[in-house]
Amino acid sequence: MTVDTDTATTVGETIAGLRRTFADGRTRSVDWRIAQLSGLERLLTEAEDTIVAALAADLGRPAAEAFIGDIGATKAETTFARKRVAKWMRPRRTRLPLTALPGRGWYQYEPLGVVLVIGPWNYPFYLTLGPLVGAIAAGNCAVVKPSEHAPRSSEALAELLPRYLDAEAVKVVEGEADVTQELLAQGLDHAFFTGGTEIGRHVMRGAANHLTPVTLELGGKSPVIVTAQADLDVAARRIAWLKLMNSGQTCIAPDYVLVERAVRNAFLERLVATVHTFRDGNAGTGMRIVDERQFGRLAGLIEGAGGEIVLGGGVDRDGLTVEPTVIADPDPGSGLMAQEIFGPVLPVLTVPTLEDAIEFVNARPKPLATYLFSRRKPEHDAVLRRTSSGGVVINHLAFHCMTPQLPFGGVGASGIGSYHGEWGFQTFSHRKAVVSKPSRPDIALLYPPYTGRKMRMIRRFF
């Protein structure tokens, strides 16, 4: 990929400035970190109208969803970190083995330096500022690269962040994919990316040239298992809630449902009725998709799905909208079941038993989330023990992502690393081991020559 000279110069100067700021030491103090986190809290409060307008323009997001999905969630993450960062920074004492005595051992966290946060378009504030919270709490300088596919949100971030944060320590660089690659070419101290798996591979390749460590928050096909022991009314409401949020363009949205045959028809009836209720009787009204490429992809998935469309199925190219769609028992080999859907289209597949559902999930790449609806603990234990995913929620959805007391991240193809709360702080920190010993006594046993008698004594310690 070729980068024009002006872009390369601008990016290089930006990173050089951030490195100078980090070198002056200001970001290491707890006071600086708390001040920046407080600034983010003020931004989210005072600029709420600006954020809502940007999300409406980019994604057609209603104000309530803008608050729940981007503003409120980010504010909670920021406040949680501000109240605890001083504690997270404290050195942690450890016991030393007999061979290291006398002495003291501990580990302490130090900032990495200048880090990169690459944001996505689907939750352009929460999924950009959330990682930034961890970077700031850890005492780093940061360069933020918002998604070019959410231009109004990118513009808002570029305008707001310098107003509320230390403008010499946090920079926003806008642009296309070539700008991201130029940023990675600077040899930064960490790169944090949220987005699709294919672009994640490009980010990892760009980072590898400079051995830049990465955190990749990706996606995948997150399954929902509904057993015969589930509360079907609750399951239908909770699945529809998250699937319709942001027009289904959510990395932890339910991608498909596996429902036991005994309750298949009853579940479908409740799911369809719930969508009508949530849409206030306008289930046939389309939901806005971010751009023409994503719209065309979704329209093609619906057309080639097979199975029975029990709700929706309509698309409007002029308005870039797709109706909330439920497809019962689509072709397992269709594109709908081969790629992450990322839209308001929900396949519901019938399985004979929970055992069949577990086998179906395990035959596919590890997802970002697995959801189970069941009132029987043995079924909970079976899914927890026998499946692998970034996280699991039982009898609800998404709460593992909405809880800063828990790490959030993927496994396998759904991501590398985790963040939120203290895990975000640790992701952007180096855990440095320290041993401090007195000058005396100076035990000669360690030093050559290693006589037979010395080696007999040394062996006793191992």
Automatic annotation (TrEMBL):
This is Aldehyde dehydrogenase. PROSITE patterns: ALDEHYDE_DEHYDR_CYS, ALDEHYDE_DEHYDR_GLU. Gene3D superfamilies: Aldehyde Dehydrogenase, Chain A, domain 1, Aldehyde Dehydrogenase, Chain A, domain 2. One of its GO terms (cellular component) is cytoplasm. One of its GO terms (molecular function) is aldehyde dehydrogenase (NAD+) activity. Keywords: NAD, Oxidoreductase. Residues 2-434 form the Aldehyde dehydrogenase domain. The active site is at residues 217, 251. GO terms for biological process: aldehyde metabolic process.
